[in-house]
Amino acid sequence: MPKLNIFLDISALIAGAISESGAAHVLLQLGESEDILLTISEMVVAESERSIAKKSPRNLNDLRTLIKTAKLRIVGDPSKKEVKANLYLIEDPYDVPILLAVMKAKVDYLATHNRKHFLDDPKVAERAGIKIGTPGEALAWIRENLSSV
Length: 149
What we know:
CATH architecture: 3-Layer(aba) Sandwich
CATH topology: Rossmann fold
Helix content: 55-70%
Shape: globular
Distance between the termini: 9 Å
Number of helices: 9
Largest sheet: 5 strands, parallel
Mean pLDDT: 93
Low-confidence stretches: none
Number of domains: 1
CATH class: Alpha Beta
Oligomer: single chain
Order of helices and strands: EHHEHHEHHEHHEH
Number of strands: 5
């Protein structure tokens, strides 16, 4: 059986890097132990690095190390033309490249803390054909799916 594949957006990756007790960090540990497959996009890497460099520059190397040790699969970003053609998917155009990367990567679940644009609008998950939830909800979903095997 293929491993469950979870996409971490910028908010989930940063949360996992900053807090060693949160669900996002547990997801990173599961990736490191290769119990699940974790996926991010080039944009997630770039924006996470930019955010950490701005808010906590001393932790930038920790983030880069974490990306390697958690064995994150990094997928390419969609083209500008693809983004423009899919602006209908989500309210915030800035989130379209993330959603398209999620869809192209054919992951099982998108873990995010972005309540306003992803979690509070169920139409986003419907349009994208993907499960979307917080890192904690993703962990619960993983438990359900691993225990039913």
